[in-house]
Structure formats: structure tokens, C-alpha cells
Backbone:
């Protein structure tokens, strides 16, 4: 069984860390392209995880 909450947090952190890297003006353009491509993959993973998750109220 996967811990969806932990996975969502980790993947979301990766996504925002990538956005921070993209905002670095000292980052070479070719690295920005690779980061952007990886962000697309992370976004797709997040969307798939959210679509396939059955959120239940545990309160």
C-alpha cells in the first residue's frame, strides 16, 4: 500500500523545486530546457496520481 499523502507531498515538492530552479537567471538555457521537460513529467505524474486517488475523510 502506498502512502498517497506522502507521495503527493514529495512530488509536489519536486515540482516547486523545479520551478525555483527555472527562475534562476544564472541557469544555462540547456539546463532550463531539461528542467522544464522534467517538470512536464512531474505534472503528468501529479495529475495521474490525483485522478487515481480516492480521497476519504478520516476525521
Residues:
Amino acid at each position: 500500500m502506498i502512502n498517497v499523502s506522502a507521495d503527493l507531498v514529495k512530488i509536489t515538492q519536486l515540482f516547486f523545486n523545479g520551478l525555483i530552479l527555472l527562475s534562476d537567471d544564472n541557469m544555462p538555457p540547456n539546463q532550463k530546457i531539461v528542467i522544464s521537460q522534467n517538470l512536464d513529467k512531474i505534472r503528468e505524474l501529479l495529475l495521474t496520481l490525483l485522478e487515481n486517488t480516492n480521497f476519504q475523510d478520516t476525521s
Remarks:
- Residues 4-51 form one domain.
- The chain has a mean pLDDT of 84.
- The chain is about 70% helix and 0% strand.
